Structures are given as structure tokens and as C-alpha cells.
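Exercise 3.2. Students should predict the tertiary structure of the chain below and write it as C-alpha cells, then compare their answer with the key that follows.

Predict this chain's 3D structure.
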Amino acid sequence: MKQLLEIIAMLMLPLAMQAQGDYRSQAWAPDNGDGTYTNPVINADYSDPDVCVVGDDYYLTASSFQCIPGLPILHSRDLVNWEIIGYAVKELKPREVFDKPSHGNGIWAPSIRYHDGEFYIYWGDPDYGAFMVKAKDPAGEWSEPLCVIPGKGIIDTCPLWDDDGRCYLVNGWANSRARFASVLTVRELSADGTRAISQPVIVFDGNGTENRTCEGPKFYKRDGWYWIMCPAGGVPTGFQLAMRAKSPYGPYEHKVVLAQGKTNVNGPHQGGWVHTAMGEDWFLHFQDKECYGRVVHLQPVNWKDNWPVMGVDKDGDYCGEPVITYRKPKTRAPWKVVNPVESDEFSTPAMGLQWQWQANYDQTFGMPTTFGTFRIFNFKHDKEAANMWDVPNMLLQKTPADQFTATAKIRVTCKAENQAGGVIMQGLDYSALMAKRVGKEFVLQRVTCLSADKGKPENIVDIATFKPTEEDKTDYKPAIHLDIYLRMRVDNGMCKFSYSLDGKKFKDAGEDFKMREGKWIGAKMGFVSVEPAGNTDRGWVEADWFRVTK
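Answer key:
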């Protein structure tokens, strides 16, 4: 009977994954239902977004840094309603670096393109060079990452296949590695995009000007003109540049075509331009919202004297301001109202597409079950570690809105002293609500760390003590179990923790926590499960469900 149930579950998996794509968020939905949308169209940390169009379909990817799986792939048919359909990278190399959390490293500022029947994604790893993966089906398997150009400092890469089949690559430079920045370079790649066949040429220099920190370039061609679109002026304070030339190597003339103006959309930063099948032009970019990360906005693009004016240009100076509410892009047919998935019932034997680990996956991190739960095994944590910054098996996802509530129903299973698990809001500062085994009981604790990335110690406050919900009857390595509901309520950058034993009456659990961004990413929420290093059998957290509501 058990084998039959497992077979049925596996047969249902594709249907379950498809159903996951029809998810509607209770926390943030940009489609107003009246032919308009409200920015951000994705109110979650999809940093450095880029997009390509194939017929009526749009595909978006974004920076994922050290988080695995990496390079999320999102799909839409109206540029407003997006669903997660997969990831392009399963692990990062070298493994000795990325098998443990390498915060802020890894995949920076990718670009996605469709060429000759295949999808390509290029990105820069600031320590190892420019990489590429490709696939015929963006929701399917992608190739293993290929290092196209080895070297330090290469970031923000984007290819352009010209009309004659030649391929060019534009990129920015990381000052932290190369010790120079604010320049964009172009070089030629082989026609198949797998290797450089020329040396880089500086085509734009923002040093010593208002165009400092020019980065994140995207390469296009339109009506015989080569275009590079990029942000400059800094992440929270900058603007969008459009550059044009008659040669991929320039010389380029440029204009500022999008800036904050009188809006509250600070520093509209790098993104991607698309020309739709309906003949319209649109631009997706991010806005840095500190602890919430870099959320995605959609701007209309109108051409004026062969310049792409983004947003709404109220004074005719070719520089638009971001729109907040605007009409939706035209489509051939209505597209479903759908949002990136957040809640998870853990009802299928596969990890939900919203979740990522903090390092390359190891099977001892945890795994789905066929009985409607997801098990996160305790990470055996170094006794000398001051905090949990380097715990790789945190199962985390992005925050979805400025205000929301995330509630988890879990069972904490402990086979030895000091094993603990619960929920966490993680960033450079973090706070967790965790149940820890002490003797034959559980102690619920608030574990908070400020400047975790700097190795600062945790502050631990005991909240309550509980008898086990259940104890194993066997004499062989018995465990004690606690069934508990844990909740995080987020409101304008503050996180309030609470708990319940019945899922109805919740009690506050310590002081409110001021959320803080991570290393180049927003704060992330989810599960943590740890224990002291040693030879004891692991405990675990069994997650029954995780629900995000308004």
C-alpha cells in the first residue's frame, strides 16, 4: 500500500507543480483587475532583473548570489503577472567555496537571451569570471555552467548576436576585485558565445562624472543602432542611461532616460527592455528597498527622436519618472492573474520553487517526504561559532510585501540535548524563534544576533517551557517531539514573533525585531534547524505547512 501511495504521489507531482504556478498572493498582487497595474509588479527581491521575449512569452531571471538553486526563471505573458517556473543552476563551483555559505558571492547580474532556438543566460562571478548556461526549454534542464572568460572583476555581462551572426559581450567591473570600476567594456565572442575572441575595449567611462558607478549594462540593436542601457549614479540614488552608436564599439552618445524625479521610487536601477509582439516597448528595473531587497518595477517606454524615454516624461526633457499605477501592456489574449509562489503545504515530494538553501545542497540538509511534510535535519554547528551566519541548510525564501504574516506549523524532533529548530528572519542581523531540547522538555527561545556577518554573539531570551507533545515509545534512540505554530508578522521593516500550541491563540514572543538586508540581498524568511557538533543522531524540524497571508 505504501509503494502504491508513493507511485500516485510521483504521478501527481507534475500536476502539483503546475498548480503551484497558478498561485495568487494574499500579500501583494500588482494586477488591479481593471486593466491597470500597480508597481512593483514583483514586490520581492529579484535583484538585477533581466527579461527576454519569445513570441507572446516573457522570461525573467535575476541575481541569486550564493543561494541554491540559483538563477530563478520566471514566466509571464503580460509583464505584470509572473510565476516561478524553475532555476537554471543547481550548484556553484568551486565546491570548496560554495559548499558553505559564501554570502554575496556567486551569481551577479545575469542577462537572459533567446538566440537560434535556445535560451542563454550569462552572468559575472566577480571572483572567477563570466559564465553561461543554455537550454531549449527555460522551464527544463539547463546546461552545466561554462566559464566563457576567466578572470577577477568581470560582472554584469550581456551578449548581443548581430545580424551577421557575430556575437559581442558588454560587461561592467567590480572595484572590490579589479580595483577599478565605472567603465563598460565590449569584446567579441565566438559565434556560439562560448569564448572571447578579442580583447575588451572601454566604450563608456563614468569616472569623475555624474555617471559614476555605471554598471549592469544590457546590449540591444534596433533599426541599425546599437544600444547599451545601464544605470549610473549609485544603487539607491541613481538613474537610467541609454547609449547609442552605429558600431558595437561606439563611440556612444548617451542621455538620462529615467530618474526618480518627484516620485518615491528611489534610484530606478538596472533592468531589461523588451519590444512586445503587440509593438509596444517596456522596461523592467529594480528599486532598492533596503531590508526588503530589490523589487521589480515595470515602466512604459516611448521613443522620441530615436531615444527611449522610460516612465512618464512630464517636461519633455527625454527623462521620464517612474509610474506607480499604469495601464497593463497589450496582449493577444488575457493572461491569468498569478504571482510568485510563497505559501507551501508541502503536499508533494518536491521542494517548492520559492525555497533556496544558503549553499550548495547536501542531502543531509533536508528533503521532502511523501507524507505531506518537509524535513530539515539539524546542521551540526561548530561549537566555537558565535552565531548562525554560516549555517548552510537554512531553508529560506524572499519576503513578498511591506506588510504580511508568515505562519508555520512544525514538529520539532530532538534525540539529544541542545538540538533546536524553528523559524528565522535572516539578514546581516537576524532573529529566530526556536524550540530547544533541555533535559526532557522544550524551551522556546528568541535568538537574535546583530552584525552576524561580523561574528558578533547571539542574544538568547527564554520565552516559555513546554512538555513534549509526544515521546517515542521505543528504547532504541528515542526522541521527544513538540508540535507548535510559529508566526512572523512583518510591518514596515519590523518583525513581530509569536507562537501557539493550538493554532488559534497566539502569544507574543519577545521584542519586535528591526529587519536588515543580507549581503546584496534582502532579508529572507524560513526555517532553521541546528545542534552542537558531535556524533549524536540528528534531530530535525518537520514542516507541515508555511502560509503567507496579508
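Discussion points: The two ends are 40 Å apart (CA to CA). The mean pLDDT is 95.
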